[in-house]
Amino acid sequence: MSAEELDTDFERVELPLEDAFTISRASQDVAENVVVTVSDGDYIGIGGAAPSPHYGETAATVEAVLPDLLEVVERVGDPGALAEIERAAHETVRENPAARCAVSIACHDLVGKRLSLPLYRYWGLPADAPRTSYTIGLDPIDRMREKTEAATEAGYEVLKVKLGTDAGVDHDVEIVRAVREAAPDATIRVDANEAWRPNEAVRAIRELADAGVEFVEQPVSAEEPESLRFVHERSVLPIVADESCVTLSDVPQVAERASIANIKLMKCGGLQEAKRMIAAAHAHGLAVMLGCMIESNASIAAAAHLAPLVEYADLDGSLLLAEDSYEGVSMPEGRIDLAGCDRPGTGALRP
């Protein structure tokens, strides 16, 4: 097959958040994403990168490597050669998974548009998907209570509460109790983002179980894998591995240290790789949560189409924005409405 004439481009977008978003190690009120486009002259594929400094990426590093990655797409010449594009992209740029992911999403979106199929149908998946959680970022307890009340009034039934305060685990437990009082019927999950020590994590988790928490995400440092095993073996609640589960090669080790793997497009580098990670996690007996960064619908929309493959979803990145440059898959009250997605590809659209 002869190569097609493809036009590629990218731009940086600044996305203000509705509220400052704080976790144990950082705070932000603006998210910088980079949006990639791949066009065949008739259709334009859209993909987004949401780089995380925690994994060594910024908007600037994404912009620095995208010319090389988009040259790969133009050299392959067939946007439908999705596996080949991801493989060649990884050979060209070993790091920068968010940058590679933006290219992968744009090519998948273009293929779906050319076939007039939403991405989940292109993959042969059902429309059923788990409800996404809505994140309550760290703040003073009264403010977290207010944000919880606002989220439940907006119809969100699953809440993810960020923990890991400087005041310690006892204060973290107080936060969860306050959130539970404000949302007595909600499903509550918590994420410590590596902030706890192993013994205090085990102790805190017992108290969190009494508050009706569903599971605990990354309680201890990813740099201490045996600490994660220690907590997992003693925890009365399921443990989710996030920072400990970045790439496909992490999955077998995580299976011995957690019950759930948090797989994110921006960590693994593409939709093909994400599907491999999901399959590997299930093969190793792990449940899967599909997670995200603070992202535009230019990338969240693609993740939504993967949601039928997993048990849990945490795809609220665009819901936390004050405004988004792109529309995507509708998520009323946290329900991922793939059946209502009448646009082909990922459904991402610039209004």
Keywords:
single chain, 351 residues, alpha/beta, Enolase-like, domain 1, 3-stranded antiparallel β-sheet
Instruction: Please name the CATH architecture of the largest domain.
Output: Alpha-Beta Barrel
Characterize the overall form.
Answer: globular
Total strand segments: 11
**In angstroms, what is the radius of gyration?**
20 Å
SSE ordering: EEEHHHHEHEHEHEHEHEHHEHE
Assembly state (oligomeric): single chain
Helical segment count:
12
Which secondary-structure class do the elements indicate?
Answer: alpha/beta
Helix content: 25-40%
Give the number of domains: 2
CATH class of the largest domain: Alpha Beta
CATH superfamily annotation of the largest domain:
Enolase-like C-terminal domain
